[in-house]
Amino acid sequence: MTEQAAADDPASRTPRPGGRSREVLSRIQEFGRTEHRPRSPRGPLVEGVLGSLLVLLGSFGVGWLVSISAAARLDWVILLRTEPAGVIASTAALTLGCWVMFRAWLRLGRALEGFGGRSLRTVTLAAVLWSLPQLVSAPIFSRDVFAYLGQGRLVLAGRDPYETGVSSVANWFQLGTDVLWAESETPYGPIFLWLEAGVMRLTGDDVDLAILLFRAACVLGVVLIMVCVPPLARMHGVDPGRAQWITVANPLLIVSFISSAHNDALMVGLALAGIWAAARGRGVVATLLVVLSIGIKPITMVLLPFIGLLWAGPGASWPRRLRYWAMTAALAAVVLVAVGFVQGSGFGWVSVLAGTGTGSVFWSPIGILDTALSTLLDSLGLASYWTLDTLKLLGRLISVAIVIVLMIRGSEQHIVQRMMWALTALVVLSPIIQPWYLLWLLPLFAVTGIRGDWQFKWVVFTVAFFLAFGAMDQLSIWNFLQLEGRMAALSLAISWTCIAWMALVDRGTRWVLFQGWRTCGPTARHAADPTTARRPGRHERPGSSGDAHA
User: What is its main location (predicted)?
Assistant: First the structure.
């Protein structure tokens, strides 16, 4: 046997200390590399469509429909909604469809791991194909869209939605509005009130058509996101295909912004368009676009100071920054005053913005602290009624302080990141964090760079968590069937099974847990300066690669 052959023969090797450990480690690493081979995106594209079709089918059985809906009177829909077998099948289809879409999303990202080339076109095609079935689905995961109907009727009746709940209009409950909205003031901006009233004026009592029109407005928001994410990513040296994949092809965004028809889609799309316009030096257009976003939901008012910084340009002195801040604020105030005057609601939305909401959710930091503190005080026999209100006030003060610090301090090269963290502070330190609130932040994180280590895994975990929660929590089941609790348990069991399978067994998805993502950084070693990017490609370095720098 030659010397080289002896070296290659496993039987001829002498045992070495730690050899067994290295062999086990090698096998574990190989386990994570099993799917590293390049793959065609065709399979994930088809799989995502199948998942979306399953969600569509399930939505007619356990999604939100009202009794006066034409769809609710179809024979096969009645069968799905009134027979136990139909409800069980619909719950399984809805939940399983979400996880098929989730798996397709991860597989698509793996197939396009290197991105570049035509990956942006492929991701955009995937987002479109996966979204198409949801254009005609029954609302799922939330029934806020039915509140839009009631608020539009309020405006048409000459009442102020900032002072009156939807219960003041006749037949409000039969139009599907959640009882939580009965006495609640609207949290939406005056421009969205116009949209609500316009839709209800056009559709009357045709609930199905009204939902389709509200969904069309949300689709417009998603299209704006789809258009703005790639150039913003390029501006920060991030691969546009990867940013688009994390954002627009994301199943949580498709379900929350299209299936649920949340107006947040329009708010986020307009805000991103404003940020891109500001980065291009078009301050007036940028301010007007962000004002339109504020008119949908006032929370995006936090973006205005940073729009002023982008408008002021690179190297702006403090007098110049103050001048552009004043110009931005004055332009926004004039437009909002004019809208409030014409619309008739004035600045009622300001009181909504100042409020912190009622209650909390168990996954918010304030909710976690409130639960821990109140439990401790109760165990000691002390009063705990004050904890939530106190924590909400502290959260609001801390978030405002963070926003002010980010306004006045930080690198000019990271204005968009500062804007991102300001909005993040407002969301995270709020007692109520709905799943779709996180989609306000995801595009900004994606375009500024999400690393392939724990950051990407956290995105995947968050999407999985809220898919499982939404599929279980928001099921419309007739009370006489007495199946609501069992269907929630069935949905949760399906979700846990799918999560365990994809994390530990499925060769197409287990790489997320065992390996992470190697080629996930921006396309440039250092992020481009958004304050000086006036023309596409001015600060890009095609073909380079590197890690994200926050």
Answer: membrane
